[in-house]
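Aim 2, interim progress: modelling of the nicotinamide-adenine-dinucleotide-bound target.
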Amino acid sequence: MGKIKMETVKVNLGERSYNILITTGGIEKAGAELKSVIPDEKVLVISDSRVGPLYSEKVLESLRQADFDADDFIFNEGEDQKILFTVERIYSFLAEYNYPRQCTLAALGGGVTGDLTGFAAATYMRGVNFVQIPTTLLAMVDSSVGGKTGVNHRLSKNLIGAFYQPRLVFIDTDVLKTLAPEEFRSGLAEVIKYGMIADPELFLTLEDETGNLIAGNSSSLERIIKRCCEIKAEIVSRDERESGVRAILNFGHTVGHAIEALTNYHKYRHGEAVAIGMIAAARIAVKIGMLDDMQSQRLWNLLKQAKLPYRFSALDPADIIERMKKDKKVRSGRIRLVLPKKIGEVEIRDDVPEKTLLEVLEEMQGEK
Ligand code: NAD
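Predicted structure of the complex, ligand included:
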């Protein structure tokens, strides 16, 4: 086997610190890398019905080569499987096959797999080891890092969960080749988010590279993913449980979540709803004199290049606002918004007049 290049990003969380390893084409190294951080014998690789048939065997093989006793568990793909029932099935499998307290659950998949596997790992026998092998762009740059795990409840998304950090995040960007283009673009919305909240250089790179990225021929993909992981790692290291700065990661998400909820999570992918939310936030910022209109235009252009939506249809702006008031993150009835001051810097505000919010949402109604 030739030497495989691997980049490392560290998430500093004291005794819960861990590395994010990033490679292109090195999935067969996953077992050896796990071995260096995990003392357990038994590993259960959890993936969904689309990812499992593509990558589970490769990962199992590499784990077995590293002397792990490895097996897999596959559930039906889809957000509607991110529920307690699936976690319950994982518990049953673990109990039936005598997985001890010293075992590891490895999430091989997108955010759905990562969130539910992490929650199962946090709760089975009061907590077993957990590793993430993300396979969507969204999971690589966002959901696999930071330890938010959980499942949806009939009445609310991500209602049940735990903060539970993985011991390792292992990223092979090559697996993105099989990802559907619209899923890739949805992940790009989160990548663009990092440029807006923290890194004007990254934003510039994306302005140059987005065409290549969505055509699947950008040599910068690994570097861009690494940069996003660095930003997320840095924010999470400063504020693991979102009592302060971590909230800036919700840029675009307050409006985005409301739109997703009102359309029953069917019409828009998460990143698509976030794209609409980012445009709303930028336009609000322009309206209250916080952001220069030119910068808002650049965001709009970039999302357009990434073929992400920048307006919505068949939704009542007043309903979006009502839904935003129900967000977990609302404090004492005031809607908190992450608004851009300029590309690369945001501020959390809870003093935006509802009238301004309504005006912006009304302007954003359209066909697409
Ligand atoms: P997902 O896990 O459902 O994956 C999207 C689709 O892509 C699925 O059909 C999956 O089977 C398929 N897929 C995944 N990898 C593939 C590959 N390499 N090749 C082919 N197909 C592949 O969805 P997602 O967009 O990755 O994640 C969305 C979820 O993440 C939501 O539930 C959201 O709440 C959660 N999330 C969590 C956090 C967090 O911090 N924990 C952050 C953001 C989002």
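The chain is about 45% helix and 20% strand. The CA atoms of residues 275 and 303 lie 7 Å apart.
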